[in-house]
Amino acid sequence: MFVPTIGQRADILLHLGRKEEALTLARSVAQQASVQPRWWLDGPVIHVLRATGQQQEAEAHAARLLRTLPPDNMVRGYVLAGVGRPAEAVDQLLATGLESSLIFSFIFDTFWDEVRQDPRLPELLVKLNLVEEYRRGREALAQLGQERERKK
Fold it and tell me: How many helices (H) and strands (E) does the chain have?
């Protein structure tokens, strides 16, 4: 099992409305907690568990991970966001930052919606040096949404 691929696939299947398949894959990742590498994909896996009504499973997997991840590990922010603790996720990201390869996800992915609603988002964007990039990205996303609506 390659956790990053399985975790990403579970997230994609959830977005496609294929919840049963997404849940099956998310559970397989959660049950194989010792398999490495995991990268940041446990966060989306936890989100899939939560989005498919498996809050207890999501919380249990998050708790296992949070016990083992060092306090300065950025992945903690993904786990906290995935389990629905956006304020704690913001705290974590303010402390640890975000890898540059994950900026696209932070700007566009619905996974981060609850985190982006936190009133400290402006502070977080300054800390991550993303103020302008975030503004442009969200404007582009809004334009795409408007174009999609016009085509309906």
Answer: 10, 0
Residues in the chain: 152
Question: Which residues in the chain come in under a pLDDT of 70?
Answer: none
Using one digit for the tens of pLDDT, what is the confidence trace for 124-146? 999 999 999 999 999 999 999 99
Classify each residue of 69-97 as buried b or exposed e, where b means 16 or more C-beta atoms within 10 Å of its C-beta.
beeebbbbbbbbbbbbbbebbbbbbeebb
Contact status, residue 11 vs residue 47, Cβ threshold 8 Å? yes
Which of 60, 50, 57, 45 lies closest to 12 in space, CA to CA?
45
C-alpha to C-alpha distance for 136 and 142, rounded to whole angstroms: 10
